[in-house]
Specification:
The structure is a homodimer of 121-residue chains. Chain A is of the alpha+beta class and 121 residues long. In chain A, 46% of the residues lie in helices and 12% in strands. Chain A has a 3-stranded antiparallel β-sheet. In chain A, a hairpin with a 2-residue loop joins strand 2 and strand 3. Chain A starts with a helix and ends in a 20-residue tail after the last helix. The relative contact order of chain A is 0.17. Chains A and B meet through helix 2, helix 5 and helix 6 of A and helix 2, helix 5 and helix 6 of B. Chain A binds a DNA duplex (30 and 30 nucleotides) through helix 4.
Chain lengths: 121, 121
DNA sequence: TATATTTGCACCCATACGGTTGCATTTACA
DNA sequence: TGTAAATGCAACCGTATGGGTGCAAATATA
């Protein structure tokens, strides 16, 4: 079974998961509550992300925490290098925009274990 | 059926197709001969690439020519921007490179019809 | 210790993927 | 006009995806 980074980011839910787990390390139920799919489904997506190296897991007591390894995306960046001359202006503009934000580091904000048990519904 | 650029590049064969069709415009049989899978399989991959905008087709007589639209990859580049601070040096160089180009438009270079019917074997 | 929380395990389901083969259709060309 | 080449169409196959449910096991906590 092929399991590379390109396949990891192929699914929109997984891209969202990656975004979420880049901002903060979360345990399974916490992250599952942010998404409209079942915990089991989240587990499967996470497994794929782990298998392709975009996420790592770490057990703490009975909980299992997940966090992103966004450096792995450099494989995608490397592949895209060959197409750099085709990338558009909009890309440059976005790039400039993001440059203004560059000082803010992705801090893991407040919640840790606290809430995370506010079931929706 | 989800059909975006991320899914387009998820498969290694499709990435290879994209590379091939970026270098030159080719008709179906020509491109199929470069790959170790059947013509039908190539057709299916091309259909996916077309549906997500990474390739365009153009009929000429009884032949159908395909060429890449690598500019579409800027959607991927845009998404990756948010992870720029995690990417390695090489990617930053890409970024610098792009900045120097800001005026140049992505031009489609030389080869057009010429070869493309040189059967191997 | 009893109970609640978190995760894991084992299925189930429909559909998409990646590949194939066989045959039909269209179009050049000798 | 007949034949060969290029493509299209349809069906099939095994496995992966993306989703679900139910229940067991492990571990906190009242």
């Amino acid at each position: 079974m092929r399991r590379d980074v390109f396949q990891g980011i192929a699914d929109p839910t997984r891209r969202a998961l990656l975004g979420r787990l880049t901002k903060e390390k979360l345990n399974l139920t916490s992250v599952a509550e942010s998404f409209d799919i079942s915990r089991q489904s989240v587990t499967k997506h996470l497994r794929i992300l782990i298998e392709c190296g975009l996420v790592t897991e770490q057990k703490e007591g009975r909980e299992k925490y997940f966090k992103a390894q966004p450096e792995k995306l450099s494989e995608v960046a490397a592949w895209m290098e060959q197409y750099r001359m085709f990338l558009s202006k909009s890309y440059d503009r976005l790039d400039d925009y993001l440059k203004t934000l560059q000082t803010k580091k992705p801090k893991n904000h407040e919640q840790r274990k606290s809430q995370s048990r506010n079931k929706r519904k």
